[in-house]
Amino acid sequence: MKHLSLFLCVRYLTSKRIVLLSIAAVAISAALLIVVASLFNGFIDAFESTAAEQTGDIVVAAPIGYRISDYDPLISRLRDSEIVDAATPVLVGQGLLLIDKGNVRAVSVWGIDLATRQKVTPVGELLIRQKDAAPPAFSPPGEPEQLGGFVGIGVIATPDEKTDEYDMEKVKATIGRRVALTTGTATREPSSPGGEIETTAGTQSFKRRTVKFTVTDVVYSGMYDIDREFIYLPITDMSARIYPGEKSQADTIQIKLAEGADPETALAVVGGIWMDFARDRFAWAGYATISTSVEMQARLIGEYKKQLGMLMLIFGVLSGGVVLLISCIFYLIVITKQKDIAIVKSCGLGSGAVAGLFVAFGVTVGLAGSALGSALGYLITKNINPIERFVSGMMGIKLWKSSTYMFSRIPNQIDTEVVGWVIIAAVSAAAIGALIPAIAAARLKPVEILRYE
After folding, report:
1. pTM of the model
2. I need a labelling partner for 5 at 20 to 30 A (CA). Which of 29, 197, 247, 427 fits?
3. SS3 for 159?
4. What are the residue ranges of helices labelled H in 243-350?
């Protein structure tokens, strides 16, 4: 008899098409949370990985105003360590780049050693002309003695307002062009001959220098802030022109760790190698900064995660309406099916069992809705770029602009951890929504309902 009662109760519940509305509500809420969390976390992960690609896993940085001279022995010591895979020097500067008449851009200049940098970062994969070359080179083809350099794609071109894409023909036409970089150094040392213009400010002087080079390739990293600001020159040539007569100079040493290396352990090892190298060379050795790329971005990443937390809280509260919707739908079933519930209770199904059936059915609705929502969220997230292009085409405006959101493409990786929590929350919400109707159904008295039947 109990099995018959159970069958009748489940049949009454499943025959109500309005229950599909509950499943749809759960699915939409789950999909919304999954898409928002996945896209936001994807943006954060893309930012962290791009920063790591540009700077390596660990960075040794000299204090502002100081430089690491004769760095080759330090690079060798780092490479000899089992915990370090590769290391490369970087000399940082600022300047004005004259691209053509009337076209001057403020840029950040990185002097890099291309041979060692390829082992630390995927610089070769970001080049337009030499992407498939092994290895890429700074010098123009057929002119190994001529100074060449790379420029970020955003330095020489601007993304289209509607498509957010670069005019690649214009970009490629820039390769081979002769440009001039005006940069300089602030120094306390007396000026050396060579035609530099010196401006005295207190005890310091500024030496302006002009470096002419040929654009031999264009860097397209996909991160707008990097592509629109940076140019790259050979570190030896840049050092020789800015600091003539001195040994090769660098501001930072960027390090890639061996696979599986623990960052905290690596920091201690790198710190020890640095002090052994620098203790007797530089009076400021103890003031150098040694940190991981994650630590360097920690403050900004922390703010992004706070924004994600607030966004998920807002959408979570809005999605809480699913509880009320399920409660109303199930309560409506209880009201309209009082006679049927009274019949199955009179056939031997207890109040607790009736309440349990409604809660179980709420859990089933939550499982079905969260499964459908997870599938929907997966499809939307994975196809977010085509969807964005379609919507942008329909509206006539670009929704995702690299100049605003840093990246040329929307990160579309699914956050599986968030999916798991969303499923748990959806099932819990559906069960809570079914709880009040379940209590109401359990309290029905068959005698009172069937008295006049």
Report:
1. 0.69
2. 427
3. coil
4. 263-278, 293-296, 298-319, 321-336, 338-346
